[in-house]
Amino acid sequence: MHRVAIASTPLDRLTTYLDPDRAERLGAYAVRAEAMLSGRTIWNVNATAAGGGVAEMLQALLAYAKGAGVDTRWLVLDGTPDFFAFTKRLHNHLHGSPGDGGDIGDAERRLYEEVLGRNLDALRSWVRRGDIVILHDPQTAGLAAGLRDLGAHVLWRCHVGRDEANDRTDLAWSFLRPYVEDARGLIFSRRAFAPPWVDPDRLRVIPPSLDPFSAKNREMSDEDVATALRHTEIIDIPDDRGSLSFVRRDGSPGRVRRHSGLVLGGAVPDGARLVLQVSRWDRLKDMAGVLTGFVGHLPILPQDVHLMLVGPDVSGVSDDPEGREVLEECVAIWRDQPAPAQRRLHLCSLPMDDVDENAHLVNALQRHATVVVQKSLVEGFGLTVTEPMWKGRPVIASGVGGIRDQVVDGESGVLLEDPYDLDTFAEQLDLLLRDPGRAERMGRAARERVRTQYLGDRHLIQYVDLFASLLDGD
CATH 3.40.50.2000: which residues of the chain? Predict the structure, then answer.
């Protein structure tokens, strides 16, 4: 187990985007939190420091907590490839999907407990009685009992789930229940994700949030967008008058490096309109379905429109062994297309060795896109939906899981009732591409929805209320 450095971010920076009453409330909660949590450490434990939405959320949220005077720290599990293959299987089962089709049985339980037992040994040297520990997702649930025995207040935070249970979700919950029942509280992104046996008094619903000042979301000029994408050979833009500089999460300066060969299919030509999906290479994000749906409807789509699928360099994501397989499936689909179609399809793998540069490039891509899609088959909460909404981009997304909460259909985006219906997906995409006025109105409404519902002040306030109830009488 290893610690992740957390930068300290002034909490009042968020007030730039808050109405006065919200800013005042946030300040009052910060004072309350600092007094209430004095002498305690808030620990967050998850499976990776980079490459997924949980890591991105923690980077921002913990920095604000630290800036508010709260002693907060972040730990990442050490695990084996077999452990992460199994926990990815659990993750997929909680979404109702078979994943790799492997077992969830006694042998897997022994592996799970053995790896987490070694991580618990490391935790014993850090966690003190009275501390609060937030365990994130299936990978960490087995730590709850040991931490409780240390005298810590343990919360388990589940970022994944499915609204309608099936045999696979039941199997995953059957495996996890003995572990998560040792936690004092269970936190879900949607109430529907919680299994029926969860005690309502221990249940909290806290959706994720977006940080408008992270490298992925901070404002960028059109010139800086163009320069970043040209320098990395992602978009063939002739204009090079912008800056390659960006601000890292710790406030230090960064600069976009020169990259080549990131895009299979070559750079998107200058002047082309771009349809974009940014996701992990995960079957449940259905990158292959987006690619197939776009290719199968090229005759109805405007000729100047290109598709780009963007994911992380799979060698840089340690807790997702499925990524390489999904990327290879997409590459095989691309190779099967005739040359004219290939020229309109682009697969981009962004480097993960500098997470802030990666985030800056995603920011530039989302701002350059004409339409952003997220055709997930299931989704806990789509930060890759919230991010382009914040940038005023129209979004077409599957009406599944947390995306239903994020997007108001027809107002702040388009929801697809059936993510497997590729004809409807292509028709909705074509309608939006041919009506720029509608797309612009949706983009404006999308940004306002994020501002009012999904910024960090709401998220932090919910956690302070939860901690207060946890420590009541302690």
Answer: 2-209+455-471, 264-453
